[in-house]
Specification:
The chain is built from no helices and twelve strands. By secondary structure, the chain is mainly beta.
């Protein structure tokens, strides 16, 4: 998958299925775009809701959606970036788009559930959460040129 935004990366993930259910791979210590372990957490997104906008100055995100489907939107406002001002929109989730998306530092991102059931986003970040290096903007403030409605 090709993106408009410099440094944004998508990696195919392995799903092993049988009659009992699936095993879903997410990340290994030698995976492309993975540098180190900081923390891993899950974010549930309910249908019709938006979680946006967030940016980290140091932390790199590794997102995968093993349950449900989301729309992930990434915006580049980095002054020296060749993709400054660009947006990428990615639908993530099973059964047809089980990927890991790597979001480097200093990119704004947000996501919404696009199904009728809750979605679960997994994030394996390279540093533990530190509120001093993360920034948020309420998506309803319209400071980023994307309309979630």
């Amino acid at each position: 998958m090709d993106f408009n935004i410099e440094g944004l990366l998508a990696c195919d993930l392995k799903e092993i299925q049988d009659e009992r259910g699936s095993v879903l791979h997410m990340i290994k210590n030698n995976s492309v775009g993975y540098d180190r372990f900081g923390e891993c957490y899950f974010s549930e997104i309910l249908p019709g809701f938006v979680k946006a906008w967030k940016k980290h100055s140091i932390q790199k995100q590794n997102f995968a959606v093993p349950v449900g489907r989301i729309k992930l939107v990434v915006y580049d406002d980095r002054i020296n970036s060749i993709s400054n001002g660009l947006i990428d929109i990615i639908e993530l989730g099973r059964p047809d788009n089980y990927l890991r998306v790597v979001i480097p530092p200093n990119l704004w991102y947000g996501f919404s559930c696009i199904g009728d059931k809750p979605a679960l986003l997994a994030n394996c970040a390279d540093f533990p959460h530190n509120p001093d290096e993360s920034f948020t903007i309420n998506y309803q403030e319209n400071k980023i040129p994307y309309n979630w409605i």
